[in-house]
Specification:
The complex is a heterodimer of chains A (about 250) and B (about 625). Chain A has about 250 residues and is α/β, with parallel strands linked by helices. Chain A folds into 2 domains: about 30 residues, no CATH class; about 200 residues, Flavodoxin domain (Rossmann fold), CATH 3.40.50. In chain A, about 35% of the residues lie in helices and about 10% in strands. Chain A is built from 9 helices and 6 strands. In chain A, strands 1, 2, 3, 4, 5 and 6 form a 6-stranded parallel sheet that branches. In chain A, strand 4, helix 6 and strand 5 form a beta-alpha-beta unit. Chain A is globular and about 45 Å long. With about 625 residues, chain B is mainly alpha-helical. Chain B has 3 domains: about 375 residues, Na+/H+ antiporter like fold (Up-down Bundle), CATH 1.20.1530; about 120 residues, NAD(P)-binding Rossmann-like Domain (Rossmann fold); about 90 residues, no CATH class. A 6-stranded parallel sheet of chain B has the order 3-2-1-4-5-6, sandwiched between helices. The longest helix of chain B is centred in the first third of the chain and has 33 residues. The chains are: A alpha/beta (about 250), B mainly alpha (about 625). Chains A and B meet through helix 3 of A and helix 25, helix 27 and helix 28 of B. The structure holds flavin mononucleotide (FMN). Flavin mononucleotide sits at the interface of chains A and B.
Chain lengths: ~250, ~625
C-alpha cells in the first residue's frame, strides 16, 4: 500500500485512530505493510460509450492499485463468456463488485448471462462447490429514479435493496458475504459536477473496503433476516460512524 | 455372334422387367434377378441355352463385388468397431457354422457339412442394410450391433473363399484354379509360398504407392473414360496376380479395395466399378436362377422346408444367445436376432463356387440355394411381423423426438476456402462430412490436413450416389462456379428430393437464381466476413465493442430481411426498379444505424424520474395491493 492510499483512509475516516475496524499504519513510519483486500470490479453497461453516470464512477476508480476493472460488454460483446478465465479472476480477489445501471429493476442482461455461466454447479455451489466461500459481494448501482422514490409506495414501489434480493440470495447460496450496495440514484438530475463527486465517494468507498480488516463483522450485520431490508448506501454510514466499534 | 447377342438381349430384357417388379413388391433386386432366371430358364420359357458359360463369364462380377466390399472396409472404422465385429459377428459365424455342421454331418460327409456351415452362417448384407434403412434403425444402437455382424460376414467371405477349395474331396491341397498363363505348380512348396507372399505384397504396394499418383495424373487430364479404364485395369490386374499364384481372384481385389479404402479416389473408383459389377452380378444371378432344377427340387420339397426352418431358427437362436452373452440391452435382443436370420447373397456366390471346386454335389447346392432364396423372401415379412406383434408390447424407450445432428450424413460439394472452415466447424460439432472436390491437387493437400476429401466431378450422379446422397440429410454446395452449382442443385433436387440443400454463392444474382430453384438456405459467401471485418475495424476506431456488435447485428438482420423484399422487386418489376429499391434500402439502413448510435441515453434515463412518470401515467401508478401496507 502506498502513501496515497494511507492518506485516503485518513481523509475518508477522520476518526480513524479510534477505529479498530481498520488496520492503521503507524504514523511514524512510511514503511507500511498491509495486505489489502483485492477488489474485482465488473462493469456491465450495454452502451458504455454513451454512459454518463457509470462512466463517471468507472473513470474515478479505473487504474486504482489492487482493483481489477473489467468492462464485461467490451469483453463479451457477443455474450460469449470465457468461464475459466472469469473463475480464475474471482478466485484471485476478495471483494467482488458488480457495477451497472439499474435496468427494469434488474441487471443488464449480460450480467445475468455472466452469472448463469460463471457460477457453475460444483464450483460456486453444490455439494463440493465452495470456490467463492468467504468472499464479499457488493453491487454499485446507478438509477434513473431518485432515491426518494425507492420507498414502499413510492413511485418505484419498493426500497431499492428489495430489488437486489436475487443477487443477495445468490451470494448467500455461494457462501459469499453480501454487503449493501453503493447507489448513485436519480443520476440524471445530477449535474456533471455532482456526478464527479459521486465518483470520488465511490473511490473512497473502494479504498476503505481495501483497507478494512473487519469486513466479516460488517457483513454479519447484513445477513438475510425477516427485518426490513438494509438501506442503500448503508455501508457509507457504517464505515464512517464506526458503529461496529462498540 | 448373333446368338451371343440374342442371349445377352434376353438377359437384359428379363432383368429390366423382373428387377423393378421385385423392388416394387419389396423383395429386393437379388431375388428379382433370380426370378428372372427362373422365368427364362429351362423350367420357364426356355429362352436361353448355354447357361454355364454365361455364369462363368459373369462370375467376374463377384470379383468386382469383393473389390467394392474392400473399398468399404476402412481400417479406422474396423478398428473402432473391432470388439463388436469380432464378438458379435465372429461369435455368430463360428457357432452357426459348427451347429449347422454338426446337424448336417448326419446326412453329408464331414467336409461338405463344414462347407455348408460356413456358407449358411453368412446373412444377406443387402437385405439387412435395406431393412435397417427402411425402418430407420440404421443409426440406433441395435442397428450398429447388427451392422457389426454383417460387417464380419463381409470380411468372412474372403477366407471362406480361400478355404472352400481346400475342402474339396480328392486332391487335398490341390488348388482348383489353375492359371493358364503362368503355371507355378511345378515349383516346390517353399517357392510357391514365397511367390504367393510376393503377389500379396505386390497388390498392397501397387494400391498404396502406384495407383494414387497414377489416378492423380489421370484426374489431371480430366478424361473420364481413362479413369474407368484404369479402375477396371486395377481390378482385373489384381485378380490376375492372385490367379497366377493360385489364390482365389476375389482375395486379390478385396485386398486392393482395402488398400484404397482410405484414398481420395474411393468414391470415384466405386462409381466406376459399380455399374460393371451390378451388371455382371445381375446376369450371374439370373444364370443361377436359370440353372435351378425344379424337377429335383419338387421331389425333395420337404428337404427344402426343413432347410428353411433350420436356417431361420438356428440363426435366430444363436444370435439371441450371443446377444445375451454380450449383454445387449434386453429390449434389443429380439430385433438383433430376427433381422439377420436368413441366408445371404453370398450363398449364391459361394455355392456355385463350392460346386466348381468339387466340394459340394450340385444337388445339395441347389437344394440349399432354393432354401436360401426362400429365407430371403421371408426376411422382410418376418421383421415386419416382429415389429407388429412382439415389439409393440416391449415399450420402446427410443425416439424421444429429439434429433441430434450427430450421425447425420452431410455432403459438402466443393472444398475451397469456404469449405475448409465449414468442414472444421461440422467436424468439431461431431458431424463428419463427406467432402467432394474436383481439383486433384487441392484434394491431396486437404487430405494432408486430415480432412476426408474425395476426388470427383460433383455434378455426376453416380459420384453423388457413391458419396451416399441417398442416406444423407444435407448437401452443402460451396463450389464457386455458378453454372456448375446450379447444375448440381438441379440434379440433387431431381434425384434426392429429401436432401436439404444449403448453398454459398458469391453474387446476389446467383442468390436469386437459387431462390428461383427453391433452395432454402442461401448465403452470400463474402457478406459475413466483410461485415465481421467491418465490425472489428469499428472497434479499432474506438467504438465500444458491444455497440459495434449491436450495429453489425442490426445491419445483418435488416439486410437479410430486405433481401427477401428486393427479390420480389427483382422478379416482378425488373432490374431498374430493383436498383432504385436497393438504393432506398441502403438509405434506410444508414438512417437506422445512425439513429441507433445517437439515441441519447440520458434522455432515456430521465424518463425514469418521478415527474416524468407521473406525467405519463397521469398520476402515481397504482400500488400493487400486496405491497401496500
Ligand atoms: C432499458 C432501461 C431500463 C431502465 N430501468 C430503470 C429502472 O427500472 N429504474 C430506474 O430507476 N431507472 C431505470 N433506467 C434508467 C437507468 O438506470 C439510468 O439511465 C442509468 O442508471 C444511467 O446510467 P448511465 O449514465 O451510466 O447510462 C432504465 C434505463 C434503461 C435504458
Amino acid at each position: 500500500m502506498d502513501v496515497d492510499a494511507a492518506e485516503a483512509v485518513f481523509r475518508y475516516f477522520p476518526a480513524v485512530d479510534q477505529l479498530v475496524l481498520f488496520k492503521v499504519p503507524s504514523r511514524n513510519t512510511f514503511k507500511i505493510e498491509i495486505d489489502m483486500n483485492k477488489i474485482l470490479l465488473l462493469l456491465a453497461h450495454p452502451a458504455f460509450g454513451r454512459s454518463v453516470a457509470n462512466a463517471a464512477l468507472y473513470s474515478a476508480v479505473e487504474g486504482m492499485e489492487g482493483v481489477t476493472c473489467r468492462d464485461l460488454y467490451d469483453l463479451s460483446p457477443d455474450f460469449f463468456i470465457n468461464v475459466k478465465k472469469e473463475q480464475e479472476l474471482l478466485l484471485a480477489h476478495d471483494i467482488i463488485i458488480q457495477q451497472y445501471p439499474l435496468y427494469w429493476y434488474s441487471t443488464p442482461s449480460l450480467l445475468k448471462e455472466w452469472t448463469d455461466l460463471v457460477f457453475e454447479h460444483g464450483w460456486a455451489y453444490g455439494s463440493d462447490g465452495n470456490a467463492l466461500q468467504g468472499k464479499y459481494f457488493m453491487q454499485a448501482i446507478t438509477t434513473g429514479s431518485e432515491a426518494e422514490s425507492y420507498t414502499l409506495g413510492g413511485h418505484s414501489s419498493m426500497p431499492l435493496v428489495s430489488y437486489l434480493a436475487p443477487q443477495r440470495a445468490t451470494a448467500r447460496l455461494c457462501g459469499m458475504r453480501w454487503l449493501p450496495p453503493f447507489v448513485a440514484a436519480g443520476v440524471h438530475y445530477e449535474s456533471r459536477a455532482v456526478l464527479a463527486s459521486e465518483g470520488q465517494r465511490y473511490r473512497r468507498m473502494l479504498e476503505a473496503l481495501q483497507q478494512c480488516s473487519r469486513l466479516e463483522e460488517l457483513a454479519e450485520k447484513y445477513r438475510i433476516t425477516d427485518g426490513p431490508v438494509p438501506e442503500a448506501n448503508a455501508l457509507d454510514r457504517d464505515l464512517l460512524q464506526g458503529e461496529l466499534n462498540g | 455372334m448373333e446368338h451371343f447377342l440374342l442371349q445377352i438381349f434376353v438377359f437384359f430384357v428379363a432383368a429390366a422387367i423382373a428387377v423393378p417388379v421385385a423392388k416394387k413388391i419389396g423383395i429386393g433386386s437379388v431375388l428379382g434377378y433370380l426370378a428372372a432366371g427362373v422365368v427364362i430358364g429351362p423350367f420357364g420359357l426356355s429362352l436361353i441355352g448355354n447357361v454355364e458359360s454365361v455364369m462363368h463369364f459373369t462370375e467376374f462380377g463377384v470379383v468386382m463385388m469383393l473389390f467394392l466390399i474392400g473399398l468399404e472396409m476402412k481400417p479406422a472404422i474396423l478398428w473402432q468397431m473391432r470388439n463388436s465385429i469380432l464378438g458379435l459377428g465372429g461369435g455368430q459365424v463360428l457357432v452357426t457354422t459348427l451347429l449347422i455342421m454338426f446337424v448336417s454331418v448326419w446326412f453329408l460327409p464331414g467336409r461338405q457339412a463344414l462347407a455348408l456351415g460356413l456358407i449358411l452362417s453368412l446373412s444377406s448384407t443387402a437385405i439387412v442394410l435395406q431393412l435397417l434403412k427402411e425402418r430407420g434403425r440404421y443409426d440406433t444402437s441395435v442397428g450398429r450391433s447388427i451392422f457389426s455382424v454383417i460387417l464380419f460376414h463381409d470380411l468372412a467371405v474372403v477366407p471362406i473363399m480361400a478355404l472352400l477349395p481346400l475342402l474339396a474331396t480328392g486332391g487335398t491341397h490341390e488348388i482348383v484354379q489353375h492359371s493358364g498363363l503362368v503355371d507355378i505348380s511345378h515349383f516346390s512348396g517353399g517357392v510357391r509360398f514365397l511367390l504367393t507372399l510376393m503377389a500379396i505384397t505386390a497388390v498392397f504396394l501397387l494400391g498404396r504407392f502406384v495407383t494414387r499418383p497414377l489416378f492423380r495424373a489421370i484426374a489431371m487430364t480430366g478424361m473420364r473414360e481413362l479413369f474407368a479404364a484404369a479402375s477396371l485395369a486395377l481390378v482385373v490386374g489384381s485378380s490376375l496376380l492372385m490367379m497366377v499364384v493360385g489364390l482365389p481372384a476375389p482375395l486379390g481385389t478385396f485386398l486392393a479395395g482395402v488398400v484404397l479404402a482410405e484414398s481420395e479416389y474411393r468414391h470415384e473408383l466405386e462409381s466406376n466399378i459399380e455399374p460393371f459389377k451390378a451388371l455382371l452380378l445381375g446376369i450371374f444371378f439370373i444364370s443361377i436362377g436359370a440353372s435351378l432344377n425344379f424337377e429335383l427340387l419338387w421331389e425333395q420339397w420337404w428337404v427344402v422346408c426343413l432347410l428353411v426352418a433350420g436356417i431361420v431358427v438356428f440363426k435366430f437362436v444363436i444370435l439371441y444367445l450371443i446377444a445375451v452373452l454380450f449383454r445387449l440391452p434386453a429390449r434389443e435382443r429380439g430385433y438383433f436376432s430376427i433381422v439377420p436370420a436368413q441366408g445371404g447373397t453370398f450363398a449364391f456366390v459361394l455355392l456355385p463356387f463350392a460346386v466348381q471346386s468339387g466340394v459340394l454335389p450340385p444337388l445339395v447346392s441347389e437344394l440349399v440355394l432354393t432354401a436360401v432364396v426362400i429365407t430371403m423372401f421371408f426376411a422382410p415379412l418376418m421383421v415386419t411381423a416382429w415389429e407388429k406383434f412382439v415389439e409393440r408390447r416391449i415399450e420402446s424407450k427410443e425416439g424421444t423426438g429429439h434429433v441430434s445432428p450427430q450421425g447425420q450424413r452431410v455432403i459438402i460439394a466443393g472444398f475451397g476456402r469456404l469449405g475448409t472452415d465449414l468442414g472444421r466447424l461440422l467436424i468439431s460439432v461431431g458431424i463428419k462430412p463427406v467432402i467432394l472436390d474436383h481439383d486433384p491437387v487441392g484434394v491431396e493437400a486437404l487430405r494432408n490436413f486430415g480432412f476426408e476429401v474425395f476426388y470427383g466431378d460433383v455434378t455426376r450422379l453416380d459420384l453423388l450416389e457413391a458419396a451416399g446422397a441417398a442416406e444423407a440429410s444435407m448437401l452443402i454446395v460451396t463450389i464457386s462456379n455458378a453454372e456448375k452449382a446450379k447444375e448440381l442443385v438441379e440434379l440433387a433436387q431431381k434425384h434426392y428430393p429429401h436432401l436439404e440443400i444449403a448453398i454459398a454463392v458469391d453474387d446476389w444474382r446467383v442468390v436469386y437464381e437459387m431462390k428461383d430453384l427453391g433452395v432454402s438456405l442461401i448465403r452470400r459467401e463474402t457478406r459475413d466476413s466483410a461485415l465481421d471485418l467491418g465490425m472489428d475495424c469499428l472497434k479499432l476506431l474506438g467504438m465500444h465493442s458491444y455497440e459495434a456488435f449491436r450495429l453489425l447485428r442490426m445491419f445483418k438482420h435488416q439486410d437479410l430481411k430486405a433481401s427477401d423484399d428486393l427479390y420480389g422487386v427483382w422478379r416482378e418489376k425488373g432490374e431498374e426498379t430493383f436498383i432504385s429499391s436497393f438504393r432506398d434500402h441502403n438509405d434506410n439502413l444508414a438512417a437506422l444505424l445512425q439513429r441507433a448510435q445517437t439515441r441519447n441515453m440520458e434522455e432515456v434515463g430521465k424518463g425514469w424520474a418521478s415527474d416524468k412518470i407521473i406525467r405519463a401515467t397521469g398520476g402515481q401508478p397504482d400500488d400493487p395491493p400486496e405491497i401496500r401496507r
